[in-house]
């Protein structure tokens, strides 16, 4: 006889115990403490995939240094609209985290967030002009006040001494610097939030449980079928709302739901590796996140950066990431993930996107073929004195870029994050990667407004939201005084001064 399937009922099911589910669960509990929640995680531990510190950039993505958020137009000007939007959203995240620190949900903020300057560095006349134009455009706005720009090699030697050692004196180089940048350990943050939620009587965490199916019941609720990977025990969880925040696996689970809104979506998996410094003397000489320009055809998460990190309380230095291709949708996924995601409804968008992104395909093949010496050569543009014996290969996380229908092209490859939800808001999934975790709070609040419209209209809900995020509904970029006071509060509370 097979194992008996147990049944349970809750208000909300969160699939995937990463930063997105942790953020959404915390928001739901703070805004509506009566809601019952089941958190499901396929692995034995939480935050072990994209949210893990070694699997992501750890940059508090606020567009202070990421050049891919400020594309250059054909006329040479720079489009900064996305940079402003991302910077606003990251300020929302910092406010929510500050609220959680003040209310003892997070006890030691320095364990997950630290102040690390955000810098952009470029080489050659063309890119130097681009960076200068970008700097001039951004510094007209409140969110980017305080950004510094320099081509002065003596000043750059103070900012980034490791990068300036033995550099060709004739090489053109320019950099921008924002001292208020941050390094974020999203793994630690996720574990703090999940631990807080798991202590609540009306919230349950089930690790080692894989979602096998998601189906709609006649009464409009959802039934999530799970399997305990150790015991084989199965459970049917019935819920009014389901959120799929399972990283690269979200697409496969969304397809199981069968909602019309999921049709036409595909996924393009991109793997990665870091070079991780093993020489403590080298690590100590660099204290910044320095982002450069991506190679032609490279996906956004492959923008090269020489990156100061703090992981488990210890300073680290990484360079990369080097992109690669795998048919897995998760680092601990299956090589059958990509084939399993292909349906009649998304074959055309996926083929069209593939044909339109041949440079990306070529780039990924080139990256996969790179030998350690090739990886070192890329690092040497940032650090001329780099030696292979000071570095080792570290496998990064797996990302799945969104492919969606397009009325003209058939299908396009999206490089951001996207929430896909049913018409009635009873199920939603987060697809895509960058900027992801850094903007999770703003993304999840907008999801709540879409999926819990009746509660979101309530006065108590709106009042509580403004308590947690004082600037909600306002643009810090439009108000210099509010921007300054908000940043002072968050930086004091999060110990970023």
TrEMBL record:
Its EC number is 1.1.5.4. GO terms for biological process: tricarboxylic acid cycle. Keywords: FAD, Flavoprotein, Membrane, Oxidoreductase, Transmembrane, Transmembrane helix, Tricarboxylic acid cycle. It catalyses: (S)-malate + a quinone = a quinol + oxaloacetate. It is an enzyme of class 1 (oxidoreductase). Its cofactor is FAD. The keyword NADP does not apply. The chain crosses the membrane at residues 12-29. InterPro entries: FAD/NAD-bd_sf, MQO. Pathway: Carbohydrate metabolism; tricarboxylic acid cycle; oxaloacetate from (S)-malate (quinone route): step 1/1. One of its GO terms (molecular function) is L-malate dehydrogenase (quinone) activity. Belongs to the MQO family. This is Probable malate:quinone oxidoreductase. It comes from Sphingobacterium corticibacter. The lineage of its organism: Bacteria, Pseudomonadati, Bacteroidota, Sphingobacteriia, Sphingobacteriales.
